[in-house]
Amino acid sequence: MSRYRQLLRFARSYLPLLFACFGAAVIGSVLDGFSFAMIIPFLRAVFGETSLLPAAGQNGVERALQWLVGGLISRTDPEAAFRNVAIMILGSVLLKNSMLYGARLGSSVVQERVVRDLRNALYRHLQGMRLDYFQRTRGGQLLTRMLADTEQVKGLLGDQANALLQAGATVVVYLIILFALSWRLSVLALVLAPLVILALRPVVRRLGRRVRRTLDDRGELTSLMQETVAGARLVKAYAAEGYERRRFAEAAGRYARGAIRVQSLALATHPINETFGAIVTVLLLWVGTRLATGPGAELRPESFIAFLFVALRLLVPLKTLANFPAAYAQAMGAGARVLEVLDQPADEATAPGRETAGGFERTIEFRQVSFAYDGGPFVLSDITLEAKKGDIVAIVGASGAGKSTLVDLLPRFIEPTRGAIMLDGTDLRQYTLPSLRGLMGIVSQETVLFNDTARANIAYGATDRYDQAAIEAAARAANAHDFIAAMPRGYDTFLGERGALLSGGERQRIAIARALLRDPPILILDEATSALDTESERLVQEAIDRLLRGRTVFVIAHRLSTVQHATQILVLDRGRIVERGHHDELLARGGLYRRLYLLQFGAEPRPVLTA
User: Fold this and answer.
1) I need a labelling partner for 477 at 20 to 30 A (CA). Which of 69, 208, 299, 396 fits?
2) What CA–CA distance (Å, rounded) separates 80 from 322?
3) Which architecture does CATH list for 355-439+522-528+551-604?
4) Would the CA dihedral through 8, 12, 16, 17 be positive or negative?
5) Nearest C-alpha neighbor of 586 from the set 570, 600, 603
6) pLDDT tens across 239-264, in order?
């Protein structure tokens, strides 16, 4: 129930509408009971009774009808009385259905708004998670929880909740009528009814476990599909279509088997309900017939028929109540997966920092900084460095040396486990994340573009801040204007999923234009030319040269030839700075930097000529 209360928080603002729906459902249930109670005078008219409501020996229902509508159906004119009975039955049915329609419509509004709020909360929460959460969580699982799981939960807070309340109200109204007609038959029905619930308990328990496994399988299937679509080029390049088909078929088969097991358990509730309902009905008929037709009959025939009508009608809301645990188990299985994400701490949303970073004037310092992921071994150890305004700091080292981790500390994608990073003498943790990141531009090797226009991709996140002239100026400086202008709709051309309509060099130039437009004083550059052809590399390198002017730059260097003019070069090995200095100085030492240089070029280095 604690999980359900967590989900119910999202319905709090809609409680007035929910209570209105519940009230309409209760009124509808009362009118439904009234229409069935009117069967008694209707049957008396059909049987040719002189009085539609007997004056003596009345049961509770007949006395209530006498008080409510006795004046309309006790007239001496049988035809007028019969007409009034028919009109009241039709009127009550019409009003009942109007009330139930309003209740169901209102509950649908509530559930759609609740699932909207739940998705918004989940999306906001994900935006507050650190990068390492997304690195260890499969995207398909998150998509499934965002879309499919929230869709499955919504009925629990809307239609299913309203149906449960309506069924409960209907059961209460019907039980009042049944007890008023015959308390003996009613007690018998109440004694037998719990058998249905007891028979369903083991089914519902197994169903809850199966649902959770099946939802996990669906998340894996979504992840696999997402990976295959994103890696379509690689799949075709390696002729791996058959391999991917087998992987997908296995995942789809596993999900289908789980879904079939869930459906087999969920569908089993129906025949169980029907079987026990039939048993209850047969017993009621047997006992009721004896009460209505035997010597000293306690129940009039028309009242017994009305009792059977209401008792049979009672099976519908009872079935709803009996089936609810199965629906609840399925919805809560999905809800638990959504709440698991919301239970994860949103570190960025609660990150320390109250000051606004107004600019960068002097230095960035790493003071004995160490970092480890979730209590694991240290990825970085005792990093100490100073970068002055305008410096170009190159970071080199073998794969896994900790280069990307080091630069991820600057925009606070991750926080130091030990030590501190100072910006003009102030710890980065004192600054708010938006203001700190506003000082930085990041151009990575894997350019991220969205299926939006070229204009929106260049001015990403601030399309209302920059006019067309500023966007074009940034594109020209990045050598991107010419190919953008040549596209069918120029700057209004959509670039496709992940910029699929562009070449690698064009995507990089869009990313550089984005950074130029933002004009940050600090730049983080994951060398962007290593996978390009000669012409694209030349154009991108020209754009990068413009981007570097007047900025403090931290560049992850994959090609050592590109960092020869760096202000300082840091050589990382197993998370430690093992060498630092200028290009020629490091080569002369004959250490790790020289070995990396020889591995790349296979020849003795030449000295760098300076002007």
Assistant:
1) 396
2) 43
3) 3-Layer(aba) Sandwich (3.40)
4) negative
5) 570
6) 666 777 777 778 778 878 887 877 77
- Most distant CA pair in the chain, distance: 124
Q: Please give the structure tokens belonging to residue 597.
A: 């240089």
Half-sphere exposure for 545 (CA within 13 Å, toward CB): 9
* CB neighbours of residue 194 within 10 Å: 10
Note whether 395 and 554 are within 8 A (CB). Answer: yes
pLDDT of residue 231: 63
Q: What are the helix and strand counts (H, E) for the chain?
A: 23, 10
Residues of the chain with pLDDT > 90, as a percent, come to: 3
* Domain residue extents for the chain: 2-343, 355-439+522-528+551-604, 447-519
Residue 576, SS3 per DSSP: strand
Of the chain, the end-to-end C-alpha distance in Å amounts to: 75
Q: What CATH architecture is 447-519?
A: 3-Layer(aba) Sandwich (3.40)
The pLDDT value recorded for residue 269 is 67
Q: Of the ranges 27-36, 343-352, 406-415, 508-517, which is most confident?
A: 406-415
Q: Whole-angstrom Cα distance, residue 341 to residue 351? A: 18
Report whether 527 contacts 558 (CB < 8 A).
yes
Q: Which two tokens stand for residue 560?
A: 């050592």
From 1-5, 114-118, 437-441, 446-450, the region with the lowest mean pLDDT: 1-5
Strands (DSSP E) contained in 286-377 are 363-372
* Average pLDDT across the chain, whole number: 76
* The domain over range 2-343 is classified in CATH as 3.30.310.80: no
Question: What is the reported pLDDT for 131?
Answer: 73
Residue pair 512/544 in contact by the 8 Å Cβ criterion = yes
Contact 432, 354 (CB under 8 A): yes
Percentage of the chain modeled with pLDDT above 70: 72
Separation CA 113–CA 172 (nearest Å)? 30
Amino acid in position 240: A
Is residue 237 scored above 80 in pLDDT?
no
